[in-house]
Design goal:
This protein has 302 residues and is an alpha/beta fold. It has helices at residues 41-51, 66-71, 76-85, 88-98, 114-119, 122-125, 145-156, 218-223, 235-243, 267-279, 285-301; strands spanning 10-14, 35-36, 39-40, 56-61, 102-107, 130-133, 137-139, 159-165, 175-181, 187-195, 206-214, 252-256, 261-263. The chain folds into 2 domains: 10-263, Alpha-Beta Complex (Spore Coat Polysaccharide Biosynthesis Protein SpsA, Chain A), CATH 3.90.550.10; 266-302, no CATH class. Helices cover 35% and strands 23% of the residues. A 9-stranded mixed sheet has the order 5-4-1-6-11-8-12-10-9. A two-stranded antiparallel ribbon has the order 2-3. A two-stranded antiparallel sheet has the order 7-13. Helix 3 runs antiparallel to helix 4. The N and C termini lie far apart (62 Å). One of its GO terms (biological process) is UDP-alpha-D-glucose metabolic process. It catalyses: alpha-D-glucose 1-phosphate + UTP + H(+) = UDP-alpha-D-glucose + diphosphate.
Length: 302
């Protein structure tokens, strides 16, 4: 049954992690500020939210994350320098990040997991559905995943998660969903969720990736979650509770995604993301692809 819902306008981006997999680069620089070609990874995520018409962005931060706020703020001294030089191109690129959206920030405090980070957004979000975008997952702007998820949430109500089929040996790195089909080809009903299961205990090979559209009932569900390993509160456990409901915050649906996703939380995938995106740039791609072919050919001959 189609339900009428207020159009979602708020996005939440958890960004309080320490980025230990990228040490020592992240000792003094937030992992979200590591460049992907010539923009920090976090800017791609904010741009994705804006492209889905989410103009209000709340970032959940922690200690040593001030550069995130600075990046999305105006830098008048730099802008004035570029303006005096007549460098209109770089001036526009500098101003782009500060003009993207209305940005808000709140500190998580104790790093108690993704569920706790989302709970920190409750005073800002209120009683309306909202989107959550994890900064480690970059979705290619040509793939309208988040916009599709918002459409599905407006149609079915409840919460919507992004799912991607992965190899069985990789499922232990993700939350895994038990699913049943619906009348829509890319939409499934989620009947259960398990956080990071072993391959032989996983309900399917459909993994949760870092995009969510959540009903505000998730906040009460998070408060009921029993902390697990490292005293962390898992969002997956709260969504599992909602997936068992038909009302009062349920159900949970999944959008099965088969598009272009770049995992910048893994060092190898981070490098591959840079290469792929650089190759596709009009200003960098032709020369870079020529060099890359030459380099690969030389490596294969050694």
């Amino acid at each position: 049954m189609t339900r009428t819902r207020t159009r979602i306008s708020k996005a939440v981006i958890p960004a309080a992690g320490l980025g230990t997999r990228f040490l020592p680069a992240t000792k003094a620089t937030p992992k979200e500020m590591l460049p992907v070609v010539d923009k920090p990874a976090i800017q791609y995520v904010v741009e994705e939210a804006v492209s889905a018409q989410l103009s209000d962005v709340l970032m959940i931060t922690g200690r040593n994350k001030r550069p995130l706020e600075d990046h999305f703020d105006r830098n008048y001294e730099l802008e004035e320098t570029l303006s005096r030089k007549g460098d209109k191109s770089r001036l526009a690129r500098v101003r782009e990040s500060s003009d993207l959206a209305t940005m808000h920030y709140v500190r998580q405090g104790d790093p108690k997991g993704l569920g706790h980070a989302v709970l920190c957004a409750e005073p800002h979000v209120g009683d309306q559905p909202f989107a959550v975008l994890l900064g480690d997952d970059l979705i290619d702007p040509r793939d309208r995943l988040l916009a599709r998820m918002i459409d599905v949430q407006e149609q079915y109500g409840g919460s919507v998660i992004a799912l991607m089929e992965v190899a069985p040996e990789q499922i232990h790195l993700y939350g895994a969903a038990a699913i049943v089909p619906t009348g829509d080809g890319d939409v499934v009903r989620v009947t259960d969720l398990v956080e990071k299961p072993e391959a032989d205990q996983a309900p399917s090979n459909y993994a949760i990736i870092g995009r969510y559209v959540l009903d505000p009932a998730v906040f009460d569900a998070i408060r009921k979650v029993v902390p697990g390993r490292n005293d962390e509160i898992q969002l997956t456990d709260a969504l599992r509770d909602l997936s068992h409901r038909d009302d009062t915050g349920g159900p949970v649906h999944g959008v099965v995604f088969s598009g272009r996703r770049y995992d910048t939380g893994d060092r190898g995938d981070y490098l591959r993301a840079i290469v792929r995106l650089a190759c596709e740039r009009d200003d960098l791609g032709p020369e870079f692809r020529t060099w890359l072919r030459s380099y690969v050919t030389e490596e294969m001959q050694e």
